[in-house]
Amino acid sequence: MTKTNVSTEIKILLVDDDEDDFVLTRDTLSEIPDKKYILEWEPNYEKAREIISRSIHDVYLVDFQIGAFSGLDLIMEAQQHGITAPLILLTGKSDLEIDERALQVGASDYLVKGTFGLFDLERSIRYSLEHAKNLAEIRKLNTTLEKRVEQRTRDLAMALQELEQTNENLRKAEKEILKTLEKERELNALKSRFVTMASHEFRTPLSTILSSASLIAKYNNPGDEDNRFRHIGRIKSAVNNLTAILNDFLSISKLEEGKVECNPVPLNIEELTSEVTEEMQALVKEGQTIHYVHKGSAEIMLDKNLTRNILINLISNAIKYSKEGKSIEVRTDFQNANLEIEVEDHGIGIPESEQGHLFTRFFRAQNASNIQGTGLGLTIVKRYIDLMQGSIAFKSQENYGTVFSVKIPAPALSLHNTP
């Protein structure tokens, strides 16, 4: 860029179409002591504009009128092209309007020809150079400041982003903690409810076991076999009731803790259901029968344990809530990669006003209050079916019976094994 050190030689370009003004200016500059000025002259506007664009001079003295052109336009163009060296306007007369316009377009100073001496010219050049130097420093500081502001803005934006991410992580952590606490509260409530329920439900079978065990001891004579067997049967039934209560609680506890997973394996649904219905024969009341029918393919992919528990729960409920002599129908049907299970009984049914609560934990319908149970069975069945991405529905009419319908997506084994 241009030299701005006034203690060395100073290159000046005079843009003026009057050669006499060039001679006069040259002579004036030569008389200034302790300064070395190199003055160059360009009378042509276009050539002057090209020379100024190269920024090879320290100071520019620009006449107000350069032929048909205005020196103000030349100064304005120089400013627009980023020339930082001072441009001093020279004019033939003192005019406030010209003075103001000169300052507006970026002139460093304003001198009236014929009125300034060598000291006025020296002072104008010196002040203009100093002013240009100060402006350059200010621009440099501004540039440095802008860079710092930009960097600080980027740093702040990054810090804000990190803070937002931290806040988001904290919100997620808080949500997880609250979720965990809620599950803990639910689990504690479940355990408390179970203790209350168990203390009530355990009392009857334990009393039965105690009384039957005491009575068995009295039947030692020949011919008392029937009485002994009857009380042994009562003890077995009571133990089965206790086992069912404990199994229900353990199942719901594992579900609440997320410890139950769905693991499909190849199985024969007809064989599995037949096996379960045969086991349930041991629990039927006098005169009750279980009829099972299967349709469609039997070889499928399904979680065996979950399916078995669903069947056991639904069939045991059908037995429990049906009277002696009633039949229970179990149907399985595999079509279009879906397994449908239906368990129908002709028992006490579910009151219509209470059907909306059927899958709620510990819910017992009013007409089932005298039948032993935990109120957890259907909740467990629903949770198992949800894990298998299936659905369960029912139709029931009080005193006529209930039909539970389960639908579970399950690919046929032949399709599953197809490469």
TrEMBL record:
Keyword Membrane listed: no
Coiled coil: 146-190
Keyword Phosphoprotein in annotation: yes
Keyword annotations: Coiled coil, Kinase, Phosphoprotein, Transferase, Two-component regulatory system
Protein name, as recorded: histidine kinase
Any one GO molecular-function label of the UniProt entry: phosphorelay sensor kinase activity
UniProt catalytic activity: ATP + protein L-histidine = ADP + protein N-phospho-L-histidine
Residues of the Histidine kinase domain: 197-412
Residue numbers bearing the 4-aspartylphosphate modification: 63
Record-linked InterPro entries: CheY-like_superfamily, HATPase_C_sf, HATPase_dom, His_kinase_dom, HisK_dim/P_dom, HisK_dim/P_sf, Sensor_HK_Regulatory, Sig_transdc_His_kin-like_C
EC class name: transferase
PANTHER family: SENSOR HISTIDINE KINASE RCSC, TWO-COMPONENT HISTIDINE KINASE
Domain Response regulatory: 11-128
EC number, UniProt record: 2.7.13.3
